[in-house]
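> tool_call: predict_assembly(chains=four)
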Amino acid sequence: MAIDLSYDPVVQDVIDKTSEFVRSHVLPIEEKFAGDIAAAGGDELRLELRDRARDLGILAPHAPVEYGGLGLNMSDRSPVFEAAGYSVFGPIALHIGAPDEGNVHMLAHVADAEQKEKYLAPLARGDVRSAFAMTEPAPGAGSDPAALRTAAVKVDGGWKINGDKWFITGADGAGFFIIMARTAGEPGDRGGATMFLAPADTPGITVGRHINTIDRAMIGGHCEVAFRDVFVPDEDVLGEVDEGYRYAQVRLGPARMTHVMRWMGSANRARDIAIDYVARREAFGGKLGDLGMIQQMVADNEIDLAAARSLLVKACWVLDQGGHGGDETSIAKTFAAEAFSRVVDRSIQMCGGMGVSDDLPLARLQRELRPFQIYDGPSEVHRWALAKRAVGKARKAAAAGGKP
Amino acid sequence: MAIDLSYDPVVQDVIDKTSEFVRSHVLPIEEKFAGDIAAAGGDELRLELRDRARDLGILAPHAPVEYGGLGLNMSDRSPVFEAAGYSVFGPIALHIGAPDEGNVHMLAHVADAEQKEKYLAPLARGDVRSAFAMTEPAPGAGSDPAALRTAAVKVDGGWKINGDKWFITGADGAGFFIIMARTAGEPGDRGGATMFLAPADTPGITVGRHINTIDRAMIGGHCEVAFRDVFVPDEDVLGEVDEGYRYAQVRLGPARMTHVMRWMGSANRARDIAIDYVARREAFGGKLGDLGMIQQMVADNEIDLAAARSLLVKACWVLDQGGHGGDETSIAKTFAAEAFSRVVDRSIQMCGGMGVSDDLPLARLQRELRPFQIYDGPSEVHRWALAKRAVGKARKAAAAGGKP
Amino acid sequence: MAIDLSYDPVVQDVIDKTSEFVRSHVLPIEEKFAGDIAAAGGDELRLELRDRARDLGILAPHAPVEYGGLGLNMSDRSPVFEAAGYSVFGPIALHIGAPDEGNVHMLAHVADAEQKEKYLAPLARGDVRSAFAMTEPAPGAGSDPAALRTAAVKVDGGWKINGDKWFITGADGAGFFIIMARTAGEPGDRGGATMFLAPADTPGITVGRHINTIDRAMIGGHCEVAFRDVFVPDEDVLGEVDEGYRYAQVRLGPARMTHVMRWMGSANRARDIAIDYVARREAFGGKLGDLGMIQQMVADNEIDLAAARSLLVKACWVLDQGGHGGDETSIAKTFAAEAFSRVVDRSIQMCGGMGVSDDLPLARLQRELRPFQIYDGPSEVHRWALAKRAVGKARKAAAAGGKP
Amino acid sequence: MAIDLSYDPVVQDVIDKTSEFVRSHVLPIEEKFAGDIAAAGGDELRLELRDRARDLGILAPHAPVEYGGLGLNMSDRSPVFEAAGYSVFGPIALHIGAPDEGNVHMLAHVADAEQKEKYLAPLARGDVRSAFAMTEPAPGAGSDPAALRTAAVKVDGGWKINGDKWFITGADGAGFFIIMARTAGEPGDRGGATMFLAPADTPGITVGRHINTIDRAMIGGHCEVAFRDVFVPDEDVLGEVDEGYRYAQVRLGPARMTHVMRWMGSANRARDIAIDYVARREAFGGKLGDLGMIQQMVADNEIDLAAARSLLVKACWVLDQGGHGGDETSIAKTFAAEAFSRVVDRSIQMCGGMGVSDDLPLARLQRELRPFQIYDGPSEVHRWALAKRAVGKARKAAAAGGKP
């Protein structure tokens, strides 16, 4: 036991291969789509890229080895995902994009053997995509999951689900859904949710309109999905009845961190583009990159990225130790989401008129990065949770007679 | 002489009519274009809206009365432009968008009688649009105007112009160009520029590709324009030869402020949408608008908008007094551009998932507002100019034996 | 009616004289006290400086002419107070420091003729100082005035007051107190307060310890004051019984703004010292003032000061028009308090090691400026009030069928 | 090799003992000095505290085991120093304050056997204190070490040193000095410096006035020191002649990080005091700690501290691996220094009037923390160095044909 921040050579090899693959193979493809990265090019391209990644031995670094993945823990998958995120198509290629990556993670932890065979195996291979149907339109479950309104009622041999979801990432084209529905209590109660597995062609499931958002790269979009008398047999209940919120936590902490990993890659790219620009571009009798105000932006980008990465390393390690990581993941997510937006905004500013044009991908990266301050819990909700715990601890300490 | 921040009833009437016109007539039209506001709907719509504005007596509040405008000075046009800017189509309707508005301003100050008849009159009426061809691709005139490379050489009866421009707003469909070209000195000298007037169909003028930028509302786009052996007769030289930089200053200070006015309208709208949202939306057992972190964003929006407006009022008053207003316009522009981006970003955050979706126009407004930190002089250039003057004054004071 | 931001020559003359007086006479005295500016040098010095200011015709610019002042309204007193604030001893010299200045303002508006003769006349002349006894230790009236606990009960011929106050500025050495006490309702009610006038030697009034704060310049300190069976005759009730909160508003809005005016002077001085330093100091083969990161700080100081001043001008004008100015004074106060701390912090940073040493007065100015983010309503309370009103307006508009 | 962020039980024991010692023994002593922490109570108290720490087995965790220390590397000493820094007297007690701690580090790396016996041994035991005489008044070596003017000339059997230093921490009462003097080249050259060891009573060394700075806790102050014909024999040259800048780097990187460690402790304390306050304090019908704007400050403190600590862990690990750590230490230092000032400033704001009073130690902690943005290289110099390296790398990559 002692501080160690190095990676095993086996992991380092995956990182290097991923980085090389993204730069030599994925980025040129992304560039061809420039200005139209909707759905990361679609499923056909996705399967092509997947096959290539599999051949290179870098597919699904997070998935269990028995299902064809590399079985890397959170700490080790982190730099791989970051390398993949350098292109918005990279996570698709390695099959580590949201929500599949988080769904693999949850199924590996919660599903029983039959469910693993039926749902996890094809998902881990990338033969199908999946969706996680939790978020609901107002006044349902959004930032406040306790407001869950979609309901499942017990029927003979299974459950019948009714409700409306939205912002369901990847729904269009998904092979199956993990559905969060209330099985006890009332909207506002923080209990009584259950998770259900259902193939996409189950009668009563309808994928509706895409909610157009400023980010465009997510394959399968962010969709409205309606559930009308959807029957789920008992064997497709994921884990225990009424334990849905607990499983959601299993998924959400790590999923939050893998978002940070991937978008760190995008932020790195914005940074690189801007430094390259100011290193070359002349103005005011010299290079832009030698001007103090530009240097300040360069340095602030370095600081923001280093801090985000260090917080991520800490959070992943806590999760790998079996910790809940509530504070660490909220801190890393909140800082990183805001830092990435600062990085890409400074990068735009450094490039002047080019920065706001399509001649550089910076404005596009800004659109992909901005929503992360809202997705996976808005910064305000994470700050509220952090403060509640910190103040709660202080109260307990004070009650115990302690003082700072 | 005494502080007065009120408007004459005549001016107030124009403000009120503009505000009413934009909300009842222009916004509904803009909404029909939602998601596709490119070029503010095009010239046909522009002419329709113009006629309506003219009928209401609010067309061209900045243009001289003798050319059909209302002749308002900077101070008085400010709240009118702000009211018009509430819709991105509003400035088109009142014919006060960039670059026409600034070109009207400059022609009114610099053009001779014949030039006024030929160029200013149809422009002030909105019968034609115009473009101001100054900015050049690297290594030409960008943030540093002294790098001007487009050159005009004296020929019999006029001048022959050669060079390449880019980011020429409104070029596509413009009736004429005001061209900035070097008539003396070398790139890097801060002198020897001249302004030329040329109808768009002058041989040798070619409007090239649109530079796609994140803002979309500008009619006529931001284009590349090539000038190849363009002949401009002596009578179409605007003002004196070699005095172009001086005239550019006449244009740029006020143009900077009218940008602030219009985009203040957009920022107001973002603020209004977000407050309306949080005032209604329930979460965590109450309304979003009653939560402290949301209230902080609401208040910061109020503060940013009030400060931007107050700085604008000051700068306009200085310009109206005949002052150069270098410091005041740089301060107002720099603060406002950054403040507007903060306002719209907070507004997005306040609306959560809706904020990053097309279901609200916030993301679109963010795209229109972001470039203002770069257009009309990046913030860094304004800060550099401000600091240079401030430090210069301190040096003079120190040399004179003064101390703080 | 039209925008005018100029000052009458008479006012300009007071500004210029004040500026000259402070620089040639007051600053050299302040410098002698360097490192020990406690209580602005004490009452003896105060009276000397007052006499000098009276001789120059710049004493008490805010006081009614009939009581020896210059009778300037809020707008006109603003630049005078700012000029005086360039030295922390300046407001003492002109007799415009807190709380006397606000007490003069309130007595002029609320006191009856006899009270004016007894209390206002000697105060306006600066023969005595005064204190405003409102703030109480927890759980009493602090940021939340409704928590008022000091109580006055009706007795024969007057009132008997009991309670404890703290943070009572100027209490030590004050000639009289204005006491805010509850005459109806319970702590938590926003009503039922009354203001009482009482000479400092009234039996039962005890000035206790000074609360040592990071600011040191306030004459009379910030003290604890105990009121034990203090008898106040009916004729010394200020205004109407139970109307104390209303009168407090009469005092607080303007008092907030005069704080901004005075501390703007301190911020100006910090700025000037730092620019002077970087304009002279060599490093890295040039002058500090020519380095981009330093220029950014110089420019940001200019922007912050200009914005604070513009917001102040607006708020004063609204108050002069008879407006309540709740929003405008909260905005100006909140922005200015934070901006001044930024300005002095940047100024320190610009001066490096000298900036944190007593060799320059910057660290001292930082200590005087920091508390303003808390005094006169913490920034959070002003933001809360701003948001409440803004959201309230949106709710009303929505209820009326409006939409943004 | 794999990410590990845990500490060996032996190290954890030192952390725990230090934390317990500081809270139960050191803090109560510090509190007795409240308002007068100058020089951390002086040398007598220092020796008492040292003996106590030695008895507990936590003295000098950084010093080599053969000289009585615990021999902890950078990574392991980090949480110990942080625990000690919770009181400003803690580092004195463990004998890990600046500059002694850095001098021990450098002597252990550079001194020869005799020098170690003569200088390091008594220093490691805490029998004497020491000073590092590098910084000079303008136009000498400050932020720009190359400006070094103090000169050493070769004489028979040794060197003769002349020059003036200032901001020499710990000089008053130091047992010996490490003197940086130019032995080749001219001011402005980045070479030709040599380090010399000299007992404080060497003829020609005069400790002058203390430069009063806003921080007060440093034992021995920040002093001016004059060197007049100071003779240093050849055997007291530290390391090689003309290699002083290289050794300075050996000292500065780690010294920068130990500053971060210690001041992290102070920032933790500010955070704890403020949370304790808002957890108890009632206002507006509830606890301050349940209000959203307060929660935001609580959360931002958590985020800032976590990010600073994570960056520190990274930098220490790089140094422990033998890396130069130029980027990592600059990033950690710059972020941490600014973050600590934000933390203490928010803590003050959270406590309102109490926050700016001496009734809480927050204002005092702010004074100790602010200078760190300037000491050990101002933030601007670190940002400049970071940017220079980043832009330089981009240039090399571009020259090699790479693109981002």
